[in-house]
Amino acid sequence: xxxxxxxxxxxxxxxxxxxxxxxxxxxxxxxxxxxxxxxxxxxxxxxxxxxxxxxxxxxxxxxxxxxxxxxxxxxxxxxxxxxxxxxxxxxxxxxxxxxxxxxxxxxxxxxxxxxxxxxxxxxxxxxxxxxxxxxxxxxxxxxxxxxxxxxxxxxxxxxxxxxxxxxxxxxxxxxxxxxxxxxxxxxxxxxxxxxxxxxxxxxxxxxxxxxxxxxxxxxxxxxxxxxxxxxxxxxxxxxxxxxxxxxxxxxxxxxxxxxxxxxxxxxxxxxxxxxxxxxxxxxxxxxxxxxxxxxxxxxxxxxxxxxxxxxxxxxxxxxx
Length: 320
Description:
Elements: E1 4-8, E2 12-17, E3 23-26, E4 30-35, H1 41-57, E5 60-65, H2 70-82, E6 87-90, H3 99-107, E7 112-115, E8 129-132, H4 135-152, E9 158-164, H5 170-183, E10 189-196, H6 201-215, E11 221-224, H7 227-239, E12 249-254, H8 257-264, E13 270-273, H9 279-290, E14 298-300, E15 305-307, H10 311-314
């Protein structure tokens, strides 16, 4: 009996047909996914969302943890190309340095989807879409909240220290830019120190300890690019004999459960949401791409701002 195969985009959703035209077997979509790492509560929730969504969608997932190293991601992507997966998806460690490997994927006719973070490439056709948050807007939202707070403060100037994310990463660059845009020209807000905390709790604590040694009680506000760094900084503030959330106002981004618990305890003032639950959107986009359906080049998730006063009510609703 003669069997023929019809493939879409280099092998995805391959179907075997008998001479009579009846379907004998359907090959599931195979996705290669390279994750940044497991540096935070947010990232762990993001990984769980992708794995769960793949299982529910019947997608075979080949998962690689880059451990926050770009070279590991490049190696993983090349491995996916060699394995002839149907779709490659990844959350890039940093923005630059992807041209070569993405051209290799394009030459192999394997579509690429970015999740959570952007890349800077001259040829935008090297990837199909970017799914995730608007990091610049998150920074703006943090800055707007702080500007509103500053307007009610009796202090002439509020000195701000900033814990940045991983150097060169899209969220670190964009959250800094958005925040600066929102507070520009505000005479009551002055950023006195800014340094990377690498998006980790341990590094956030370490850098905050250095900030406190250098500036002590002159620090009025901490702006952290993610909740994990903020939670680490809270430990440093308490060990220095100060009250986080009171002596030092804390603004952070992500909206993980740990942040809500800190807000309920009065130790964190506001968290700007950045949802990690991108799995269902990723699987839908991958299936659409393989089926030849149009996919928007930018898919933005809907998110909110959660001040401390709503934390107790919202905590039971949090999924990460």
